[in-house]
Amino acid sequence: MFTDLQAVRGYLDGRNIEIVAGDIAVTAGRLAGEDLVCAFVDTDNYAAARAAIERAQERTQVGGAILFEHFTGIDRFRYTLGERIAAFPLLEDPRYFHLHGTGVFCRQR
After folding, report:
1. How far is the C-alpha of 61 from the C-alpha of 34, rounded, in Å?
2. Residue 1: its pLDDT value, please?
3. What pLDDT is stored for residue 35 in this prediction?
4. What predicted TM-score, i.e. pTM, was given to this entire model?
5. How would CATH label the architecture of 5-107?
6. How far apart are CA 54 and CA 64, in angstroms?
7. Secondary structure of residue 23 in the 3-state scheme
C-alpha cells in the first residue's frame, strides 16, 4: 500500500498517468465523458469495485479491457470476495469476452 501521494505522483511523473485521490464512488464520475481503453480494478471490496465497473462498463471502447487484480485466487484472497462479486455483471454482458480464469474482460462490441 502506498500512502505517500506525492511520492507516487513523483514516481509516475512523465508517464501520462493521472492519480486521482479520493473515494472512487465519488471520483469515478469524472470519467462520464471519457473514452476508456483500459480500466484496472483493485479495490478489494464490493461498493468501490461496483462504482468503477458501472462507469467503465459503458465507457470502455471496443478493443479495450477491464482488468481485475483479485478476480482469481478464490482460495487465497477471501477478503477480496466483494471485488469478484461486483464483476459478475460483466460475465453476462455480451459486449465483453472474459479470458477464462484471468479477470480480464475484453470489449468486443
Report:
1. 10
2. 63
3. 94
4. 0.81
5. 3-Layer(aba) Sandwich (3.40)
6. 15
7. coil
